[in-house]
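Protocol step 4 of 5: obtain the predicted structure for the target chain.
Materials: sequence only (see below). No template structures provided, no constraints applied. The aim of this step is simply to have a reference model before the mutagenesis design in step 5. Sequence pasted as it appears in the construct record:
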Amino acid sequence: MSIKLTLYTKEKCGLCDEAKEAIRSVQLEYEIDVTEIDIYSDDALLEEYQLMIPVIQINGETVAYGKIHRIDIINALNG
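Step 4 output (structure tokens):
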């Protein structure tokens, strides 16, 4: 069964690029279905996540935001 991971992001975001790389690294070991959502696509998302991005949700639960490391994702998957 695939794990559903949602990444809330925006363009020109260095922390978002780092989070994407961490996710790619984790995908080598875990079956993860990633959905990437630009917070500028929806005013409600922009208001909710503007100061937090990148934000990772796993199966609908926020598990990490800001500076995200590979270990943060692994801990959330095994948590």
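Step 4 remarks: The chain has a mean pLDDT of 95. The first helix runs from residue 14 to 27.
Proceed to step 5.
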